[in-house]
DNA sequence: GCGACAG
DNA sequence: ATCTTGTCGC
């Protein structure tokens, strides 16, 4: 079973949330990657009409066949407003609860959002990876930072820069379609993260892990 | 004052 | 995130 480390209290104010990010950022490891990735978890959150109701969905896929081998859904009420840069304080609590309900421990977490591509280098993927101590990566649909357009063919990429640092890549997962934005979360390198995203993306723009979690959250 | 702003 | 029209491609 996935253990969630008790590294911080859940904040009420933005200042408290920022302080937690600053304190935990040095604990993130950006080296290494899983020795072998047999299973990958997709994490996604669905927002309902009240905008206060949120549904966290996690699906574990066999990386070879891309079939779903485990899943969990948690309905909750958001306890933190949406603030760019403080995303995790809104989405992480139900996602962690869903992760704890899994019976299969995935080799890597594929998060819907950024990892190191974050103003304080502590995006959702870093936060979830650190609290579970699992390898994690972020795959965002919208960039946080600046990039040049990668070449048209699938697999092409360009660096994603933020505050003068290279924090991730704009990666073309499908020829002629706008790229996704990949950055390391915890215990994972950037290049291995991009390799994994391409393996999880044989057909569409977004990884099958994310697509499966999105579908599950929409139903449940 | 103006633009930027993960989901 | 969600809303919404038009266009392209399989």
Automatic annotation (TrEMBL):
Pfam families: Endonuclease_5. It catalyses: Endonucleolytic cleavage at apurinic or apyrimidinic sites to products with a 5'-phosphate. Mg(2+) binds at residues 44, 112. GO terms for biological process: DNA repair. Transmembrane segments: none annotated. Keywords: Cytoplasm, DNA damage, DNA repair, Endonuclease, Hydrolase, Magnesium, Metal-binding, Nuclease. Its cofactor is Mg(2+). Gene3D superfamilies: archaeoglobus fulgidus dsm 4304 superfamily. GO terms for cellular component: cytoplasm. GO terms for molecular function: deoxyribonuclease V activity; magnesium ion binding; RNA endonuclease activity producing 5'-phosphomonoesters, hydrolytic mechanism; single-stranded RNA binding. It is found in: Cytoplasm. Its EC number is 3.1.21.7. It comes from the Bacteria. DNA repair enzyme involved in the repair of deaminated bases. Selectively cleaves double-stranded DNA at the second phosphodiester bond 3' to a deoxyinosine leaving behind the intact lesion on the nicked DNA. Belongs to the endonuclease V family. This is Endonuclease V. It comes from Saccharopolyspora terrae. The lineage of its organism: Bacteria, Bacillati, Actinomycetota, Actinomycetes, Pseudonocardiales. The gene is nfi.
């Amino acid at each position: 079973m996935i253990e969630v480390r008790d590294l911080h209290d859940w904040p009420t104010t933005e200042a408290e949330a920022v302080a937690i990010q600053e304190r935990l950022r040095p604990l993130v490891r950006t080296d290494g990657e899983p020795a072998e990735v047999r299973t990958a978890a997709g994490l996604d959150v669905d927002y309902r009409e009240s905008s206060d109701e949120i549904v966290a969905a996690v699906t574990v896929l066999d990386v070879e066949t891309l079939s779903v081998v485990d899943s969990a859904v948690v309905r909750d009420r958001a306890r933190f407003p949406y603030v760019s840069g403080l995303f995790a304080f809104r989405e992480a609590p139900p996602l962690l609860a869903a992760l704890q309900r899994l019976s299969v421990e995935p080799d890597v977490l594929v998060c819907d959002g950024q990892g190191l591509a974050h103003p304080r280098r502590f995006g959702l993927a870093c936060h979830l990876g650190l609290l579970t101590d699992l390898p994690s990566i972020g795959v965002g649909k919208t960039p946080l930072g600046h990039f040049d357009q990668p070449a048209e063919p699938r697999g092409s990429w360009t660096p994603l820069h933020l505050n003068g640092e290279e924090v991730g890549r704009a990666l073309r997962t499908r020829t002629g379609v706008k790229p996704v934005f990949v950055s390391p979360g915890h215990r994972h390198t950037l290049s291995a993260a991009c390799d994994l995203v391409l393996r999880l993306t044989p057909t569409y723009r977004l990884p099958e892990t994310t697509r499966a979690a999105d579908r599950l959250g929409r139903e449940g």
